[in-house]
Structure formats: structure tokens, C-alpha cells
Write a structure and sequence with these properties.
The chain is α+β, with helices and mostly antiparallel strands. The chain contains 16 helices and 23 strands. Helix 10 packs across helix 15.
Length: 465
Amino acid sequence: MNQKFKQLLTEGASRQGTYAAGITAIVIAIVIVLNLIVGQLPSHFVQLDITDNKLYTITETSKNYLANLDKEVEIMVVAEQGRADERITKFLDKYAALSPKIIVTEIDPVLNPSVLATYDIKGDSLVVNCKDTGKHTIVPFTQIIVYDMYSYYTTGRYTETEFDAEGQLTSAVDYVVRDSTTKVYTLEGHGESTLPVAALNLIDKANINTDTVNLLTAGGIPKDCDLLISHAPEKDLANDELSMIKSYLAEGGKLLLLIDSDSLANFNILMGEYGMNIAKGYIADPGRSYQSPYYLLPHISTDSVITSDLDADAMTLIINARGMTLRDPARDSITTESFLTSSEDAYAVTENNQVQGTYSLGATAVETIDSEEGKVARLTVITSSSLIAPAITDNFANVSNLDIFMKAVSADFKDAGNISIKPKSLEVSYNTIKNAKLWSVLFIFIIPLVLVVGGFMFWLKRRKL
């Protein structure tokens, strides 16, 4: 019997079968070993971001920031074991992999209840801590995964709207490692509008403190004011206020003006001193507009400090804008440049007249106060407050309006930096198929019919062989 068995093994077919079985066993063993090895690798090496809105894809802003991080930062995940949202923990793994200075630890408040009292939290939070500066900040999970509370009151269910892990984390890390603070005041007393929530959130993420000031009641501009913002004033400056702002700028101050009016005399005098002459009327631009000639899509300059970081195909949309023409400023120490302009086919339209020309819709003027100390004054003017209006920023996700605003805010703040990162949408997007009936006929009837007929012809041909 042994002789017969050896004979079977020496036959060609048996040898091939044995060889194939051996190769199969080796391949299976290799696959198992590789699977075990890959299973031990960190998730950021082996998991691809295939989510609709790229929830786990980190922007270059955070990558560059973390690459230059020079202080150790601990991120504590304070949540009961197994309760932390998987999206948050997965993002943290990818985030921490970008810098050896980021250390992530997990603390179960059930096993370590003292952590709740130490940081005055109730759990389900991230505690971002830097021992070098002694500063810490709290990021609740509800600020990372944002819910639409209105839907709860109308439907009884919470609806997830935004995933803001990157924006909250980078802001928190920047806050705990920085020693200095930046202060921005918004002007009051002239019918100014409150800054929209989206703009305020971005300023907050950049770790810039905000406050309001009425120059007449305060008696002047506060000494800790790094930037003064006037947003959509309806009334003019008093003469004393104009003098206060001129003195503030003469000492190296910064003013950001988003203006909707062409008839505020003292504001116009201030802009004129820095080489900006407001035109009468609204700007209509048939060559650079969306749906209406008053819905402007300005040219964006890549040479200005305000817009130099934007992509080449970046767009901005503003409505009912005023226009400016640039002229020689009052002093040779002032340099003025446009960063948003109309086309040459634009018109400044009033009730009685239309003046064609190229108009500046956003400009910045810099004056050197002390070249040795690097002290400069800056006046930035945007001729429509719609740049940051929710009606535009909430409905046109592809425009760079808020990016331009934040760069105008942080242009001179080296220690603050423009690290404001927009949240990512969690709303479900649906694919809308045009000519659905035609595609239904194709996929439900034509393609299956072709496959059946083709299969039958192939079977018939094989049967005749």
C-alpha cells in the first residue's frame, strides 16, 4: 500500500496538486501574518478618509502649525470607557500623529472622579493642557459635534450639523501654548451691526479677545486695543471721534472698516487721508456678477497681504457694494493697494448717473510709523458688510468671504496667526440624477437584457463545440 501511495505522489497530477496545496497554505499564512502586523499599526497609517465631507482630513493650516509646535501639549479625553464618540477618537489619533509634542491620554471619570472637580467639568470633554505655560482649556464634545437645537424643538430629535474637531483642537492648542493675548474692539454709537456669529466664532478660534467700545463715553480708544472694527455704521463719526481715530492710527493702530454708505463725511475724510476716495452710488458689474449686476464677484489680488494665501481659483461674493478709487494719500509714508476690484466694465450707479470704470471694493493702506521698531498703522476698508453676512456665508460654501475677513483681522498679529478653521458639515448630501427615467430604463432593462442575451449566446456556442 505504501508503494501505491508513493506512486500516486509521483504521478504528474498528484505532484501538481500537492504543489498547489502547499503554495495555497503558504499564501494563507502570509496573509494571516500581514493582517496581524497591519492590525498593530496606528489607525492613521492604515485607514483612509472616505467620508463624504472628509471629516478626518486635516488642513495644511493645522499641519504647518503642529510641525512648528515647540511646547508639549496633553489632550485628555475625559469620558467613560467606550462612551467617547468614535469620530472624535479617530480624529485625535490622526491629529496627534502630526506632532511628537501632542500627547493623548484617556481618563475615565468613573475610575478617576477627581478629574471632574479639578477642571470643573461633567465629563464628555477634552482637556487641553500645557505644563510649560500653566494654561489649560476645555473643549466639550458638544462643541466638536454640533447639533441643531431648533430641530429638537420642532421634531423632538437632535440633528447633527457640524464636525468641528480640527478647528476646536488647533484653537485650543494655540491658546494654551501662547503667553500673549490679542484684543479687538468693535465700535459702537453709530448704528453699527453686531458681527455675525460665524465671524465671531472664527475670531474666537484665533484666540483673539473681543469687546465693544463707544469712543465718546470711553473718552478714547482703549490702550489694549490691537484692532478697531467698525461694522456697517449708519451714522457718521463725531469730529472728536475722528480725531481720536487719527491719533490712534498715528501711533501704529489698526482699523478695519466694513462700510455700506457713501455719505458719511468724516469716515470719507479718514479714508481720503489714506488714499481711498469713495464713489457715489452702488457698483454694478455685468462682467463680474452672479444673477444680478449688483451681486459682485470681484477680482482677488494675489499680491496683497490680505489675500495672498488664497487659492488661485478662490471666489468672493458681495452685494450692494460701494466702490472706491485710489489716489495719492496725504503722506508719502502711506502705501495703499486694492485686494478686491471690479472689472473695467463696472458702473457706479446713482439715480441720475452711471460712471463706468474699475473700482476698488476692498483696499488696505499701511503707514510706517517707526521703521526701526517695525511699527506700522493699517487701515483696511471693505465696501460692503455683506462680505460676512450669513445670507452669503451660510448659503455659498465655496466663497472665501470669511477667509478674507479673518486675514484682514489677523494681518498684523504675528503671535495670533490665522488659524481659524471652518467646521465640516455633517448634513447628508443626496445625489440628484437628471433624466432619472432614462437611466432607470438603462439599468433596469437594457443592461440586464444585454447580459442575458450575451450569456445565452455564449452558452449556445459552447454547447455546439
